[in-house]
Every structure is written in C-alpha cells, then in structure tokens.
Amino acid sequence: MKAEPEVAQYFQVEGGKSFVDIGANTGFYTKMMALRGVSVYAFEPSPKTYELLCANVKILFNVQTFNFALGDENIDAKTFYVHENSPIDGFTPSLDNEHLEHVKVKVRMLDNFQLSNIGLMKIDTEGYEYPILRGAIETLRREKPRLIIEMHEPLWRNDNLITSLLHQLGYNDLQRKWLSSYDKYFIVAQ
Q: Residue 22 pairs with which residues in a beta bridge?
C-alpha cells in the first residue's frame, strides 16, 4: 500500500513537528511518518483495528496510540459500528445490518490531550470529520497544522460545514484533491 498520489506530497512535517493520525486504522500513515523520524499520535476507536494498529507499530519508539474516537464532546460509551465485510467502520450503520457489530467506544475531544508542536494532521473518519474539528478548535488555533481531510458522504454538506469552520480558524488556502477514481476527495488546508 502507498499514499494516494493526489495527496502524497502533503505528508511532510518540518522543523521536528509531530503528526496526528485521526482514524489511523491499521497504521499505514502512522508507520510511514514514524519511519521518517516524525513523532506520531495515532487515534483509532475500533477495538479490533486498534489491536492491529498497535501490532504494526510496536517496535516504533516515536508512536503513541490511543483507543479513542475523537469528536466534539466527551462520551464514555457511544455506539460504533464495525462492518464485517468492509474496512469502513464508524458512527453510521451500513445498509447491511446482518454483518454489523455494535461496540461501545470512548469519545474525547482532541483539545483534551493538550498536544503541542503539531505540524500535520490527517483525518479519515468516514463522515465524522466535522465533529472532530469542532473538538479540536483550540488545538487548531494554537498549532495551525496542515490538515489532510478525507471527505465522505454527504460530501457537499460536510464540505460546507468543514470549509466554513476552517475559514473561521484562519485556514484560507484550501485545496480539493480528487482521487483518480473520482469517488472521493481530500481537503488539504494550510
């Protein structure tokens, strides 16, 4: 596996800054950045996927993993849907409820972690990107990291909410990078 070519060039961190991987999954981007010598904070809420993430980065001294979902409030037990036949897990159930596991996960605001020296943040959370950004407002104002946000349905509603919030936070250089398959895109904010 390799980074999507449309956004690969943006996975750079300067000046010894850290990378925050939100929706780390099994750790592809976490590992890629850690092997470049970057300190990484990786968040993955799905318990089974989190185990794989930890196994994939266990020998990397510069990675800290967190088994939390991020959002705009602190909740100790929110229903998270794990899809048996798909790598897409999240807070929205699929139409195929027969192959759907319901697990309770902890949700925390990124601002609670008081992370500093952040140069890059990737968010890929299957449509939950806006609440995550709302829970990270103070961190974003203070750190001003580059953001790489994978967009999910409903695209235009989420795009409008996210871009409006980012403009309020002073992110004026927003680019949309469509994947070659044209089924999804990233917002890169600097």
A: 43, 123
Read off the amino acid at residue 46: S
Q: Tell me the average pLDDT across 50-70.
A: 97
Strand arrangement, sheet containing 118-123? 63-66, 40-43, 18-22, 118-123, 146-150, 185-189, 174-178
Strand 75-83 with 100-108, pairing: antiparallel
C-alpha–C-alpha distance, residues 6 and 50, integer Å:
27
In Å, how far from its chain's centre is CA 99?
24
pLDDT on residue 126: 84
* pLDDT for res 76: 92
Q: Give 172's contacts (C-beta < 8 A, 6+ positions apart).
A: none
Distance CA 168, CA 190 (A): 13
Average pLDDT, integer, range 46-61: 95
pLDDT at 155: 73
Name 107's bridge partners. Answer: 69, 75
Q: Domain spanning 20-189 has what CATH number?
A: 3.40.50.150
Among the ranges given (46-55, 91-100, 117-126, 150-159), the one the predictor scored with the smallest mean pLDDT: 91-100
Element (H, E) at 177: strand 174-178
